[in-house]
Automatic annotation (TrEMBL):
Name of the protein in question: 3289_t:CDS:1
Species in which this protein is naturally found: Acaulospora morrowiae
UniProt-recorded Gene Ontology molecular function terms: small ribosomal subunit rRNA binding; structural constituent of ribosome
Record field: transmembrane: none
InterPro entries: Ribosomal_bS6, Ribosomal_bS6_sf, Transl_elong_EF1B/ribsomal_bS6
UniProt-listed Pfam families: Ribosomal_S6
UniProt-listed Gene3D superfamilies: 3.30.70.60
Lineage: Eukaryota, Fungi, Fungi incertae sedis, Mucoromycota, Glomeromycotina
UniProt xrefs under PANTHER family: MITOCHONDRIAL 28S RIBOSOMAL PROTEIN S6, SMALL RIBOSOMAL SUBUNIT PROTEIN BS6M
SUPFAM superfamilies for this protein: Ribosomal protein S6 (SSF54995)
One Gene Ontology term from the biological process aspect of the record: translation
Length: 87
């Protein structure tokens, strides 16, 4: 995903590997039930076209159980600082 953002003119500001953890709720994805997942967080800046493409890629990738994209703000000054690490 980071390579996809970079190749299309975006900026990756940070990447954190949170490791394997149990899921809160057993989830069925791609015809398989999952109870554990590998969590990671990527903080990046890109345009709406790339966001749409990332969402499509996350939904179609069989390795991804669930993916979320969260908008942190509209202006650069609002999102220049990475949020504190909290889980």
């Amino acid at each position: 995903m980071a390579t996809h953002v970079l190749e299309r003119g975006g900026v990756v500001r940070g990447f954190e590997n949170w490791g394997a953890m149990p899921l809160v709720v057993r989830t069925k994805r791609h015809q398989v039930y999952h109870t554990h997942g590998h969590f990671w967080l990527m903080h990046f800046d890109t345009n709406p076209v790339v966001l749409h493409d990332l969402r499509k890629r996350l939904n179609s990738d069989p390795r991804v159980i669930r993916g979320n994209l969260v908008k942190l703000g509209d202006k650069l000054r609002e999102i220049a600082e990475r949020p504190d690490k909290t889980r």
